[in-house]
Amino acid sequence: MGKIDASKLPKHIAVIMDGNGKWALRHHLPKVLGHAEGAKAVDSITEDCRALGIRALTLYALSTENWKRPKKEINALMRLLYDYLEKKYEKLKKNNIRLNAIGRIERFPEKVREKLLWVMQKTSANDGMTLTLALNYGGRQEIADAAKTVALKTKSGDINPENITEDFFNRFLYTKGLPEVDLLIRTSGEMRVSNFLLWQISYAEFYVTKKLWPDFNRAELEKAIIDYQSRNRRYGG
To answer: Which candidate in 5, 20, 43, 66 is catalytic?
Structure first.
């Protein structure tokens, strides 16, 4: 644990996993193998967060914009997701990790969607940590979906407009039930949020590393947490 203060851990860490393609290019490998290495990093970091005592981990796995990529790459990502769910279910169960997903998963192939929903249902009682995969996810889309739901319920009389506060609106987001994001990590050195958790990161601490996602390991995770703990979080005060 080194310099990590166990009493000041972030409750919720979110990660923009960037750099799989760059990693493959750097190692003169096909892009799909970069994604495969990235999947290994998902498994490793999930276990590391659980061991450290992090309560929630959210990973940006597939954005709404990623569908613009070549069909071959999308198909490979679907296979990797299915294989991850198939092979890691027992480990999630053993480590008392609940799997959650946010985004419009109805676009996924039926086989993948059914496996995802099955693992989510089978791990729903686990309370050691929540692992959330953002799949076909967009932050603007999430806020628009929540606003539409609130508008319809207001129109039907189920909601009094006077009761709509930030906390109230939060109940209609995909992430309802999860704590707000304390620490947002982005790998590969890019300095943008890429339409990820726009509502939830309002007061998150940002940590950007030039490490590519497949190379992001426990030592890098601990660096990010130590950096987070060195900051004075004033929430605008």
So the answer is: 66
Report which residue type is found at 23. W
Long-range pairs for 40-46 at CB < 8 Å and ≥24 separation? 40/214, 41/17, 41/213, 41/214, 41/215, 41/216, 41/217, 42/17, 42/84, 43/84, 43/88, 43/91, 44/217, 44/218, 45/15, 45/216, 45/217, 45/218, 45/221, 46/97, 46/131
Tokens 């249902």: give the residue.
121
18, 20, 100, 182: the active-site residue: 18
pLDDT tens-place string over residues 188-228: 999 999 999 999 999 999 999 999 999 999 999 999 999 99
pLDDT, tens digit (0-9, with 9 covering 90-100), for 119-145: 999 999 999 999 999 999 999 999 999
Neighbours of 25 (CB within 10 A): 14
Q: Where are the domains of the chain?
A: 7-138+180-229
Q: Which CATH architecture has domain 7-138+180-229?
A: 3-Layer(aba) Sandwich (3.40)
Dist. CA 139–CA 173, nearest whole Å? 10
Indicate if 66 belongs to the active site: yes
